[in-house]
Design goal:
Elements: H1 3-11, H2 14-35, H3 42-49, H4 53-59, H5 63-90, H6 95-100, H7 106-123, H8 125-137, H9 140-166, H10 175-195, H11 202-217, H12 232-237
Length: 238
Amino acid sequence: MSDTGTRRRRAVSEDEKSQRRDEIMSAAKEVFARKGFHATTVADIAKQAGLAYGLIYWYFDSKDALFHALMAVEEAALRAHVAAALAAVAGPRDAGARDTGKEVPFRAYLQACVQATFEFFEADRATVRLLFRDAHALGDRFEKHLGGIYERFIDDIEAGVVAAQERGEVITAPPRMVAYTLAALVGQLAHRRLSTDDGVAAAQVADFVVSLVLDGLRPRPPAPGLESTTDSSALSAR
């Protein structure tokens, strides 16, 4: 970069830089959602943002770097939205308990998480396209980042499942397997609803998911004369 460019970058305040980065990412999200990652050019993003083409590279080294930054921002926004929903359910309790659902009955925990996720995606459908359509189709360049996002959400769900199992609210199954099952169900429904307007509100879909899951996960006594197949050792041995 030239000395002139370096001086100009230094002259921009941190607040201005942050605001400009946000503007660029907002524009990029719109274009990526509309055209897809591969078909989008940096020039397209600059045009959407109303900026000169070269200015994009003062804030992001490449289109890939911009996409990575955008995924990180969307993950943080979704996590904050879900955490706020859990906080509303938990009430004035320990912050850690609110974030993980450890002190929240599993039905209320699951309802809050699922409904908040659907509401977030439906309010910002571009995010669904980014995380479920584009990122999965981009191969190795984004696989590790996307996998990290997914696993962090699995960690959160697993913590809630473990807490529910300790309270006797959920069957004794491998908690991470339960977490993956829940995530797959919610993810597929969110993706499907992106292209299908069925007129069903997010709260109704969340109610359906919660009822479906809890009917299957609620502890129940084994049938007379039959060995229980719901404990973790039996599942692990299969």
